[in-house]
Amino acid sequence: MLPGSSILVTSCKTQHVFDPQHCLLRSLSTPLYSLSFITISFKVVADQPKLISGEWGWSTCVDKSGTPITCIGGAFTGNNTLNDQAKFLARQWLINALAGIPISIFYDLFDDGTNTSLGENNFGTMYNQYNNESVPHVPKPSFVAAATLQRYLGDFEFSGRLNATSTTSSKCSPSHKPDGVVDEYSYVLQFGSDRFAVWKTNGTLGCMAGDRFKVDCGFFGITQGQCEARGCCFELPYRSGPQCSFKRPLETKGTVTFTLPSTLHSATGTAPCFDIITFLGHSVGRVCATANGSVCLPSSDEPNLLVTTRS
In Å, how far from its chain's centre is CA 177? Predict the structure, then answer.
């Protein structure tokens, strides 16, 4: 994802059964050698303290029907879908880049076992079972997300965060332009001179039954009336976690608008255009800056990458 980006994997020179997938990631990065962890590293300012962020992970337990469930033992990370795990990996690496943290460690490289309901068995970015010689372990979406960030951002240094605004509308207005107010829930991270990661985490607030991501809004013994007077959500029937929790976005889809750096806009002589690549590597269209250098694109809590169109 960033200069010096690294995946901690076994050497491709060995004959380990999952080497081909290790080599795939290694072909997109500068290798370090270890097991169990998938990491990324990048350059920082010389006098900046060297911090390591890890080990982060989200287990993907499912029941016999394949429905995500809260894991039994070994994990307290919620009933995450495979897409959730991939999204969290991408955002962890990107946010750590924003924070100037040079090494991010994601746990785990592959699942530790085959029990789909046991937390410790399901943290991997690949499944545990042997598949075949060409694809020894079937990758999860989180593995694809790691490879996507490595592929599109791996050779580019983090340049900074741009001011941005967001809406809950699904369409950009013809004259879209940021109003100059920093929206702390809209993220536009620049890599190199002309690559960007864009997402937003705000949206329509509400309460969700069985919410997996509750943040405590009360105190032990708080009543429903006291909780709702704070504008928060009171869980009935109570399941687990804080019974009184803050409302959170139920839907994050909308748009994000930002202005390109003047150096990029003026250097091209024309309004530059970008390919939109999802965090899972899918090309989903193209967006061009307006004459004033502003860019608006559909966004959600799933990061998109903007890559300068070369044609």
Answer: 26
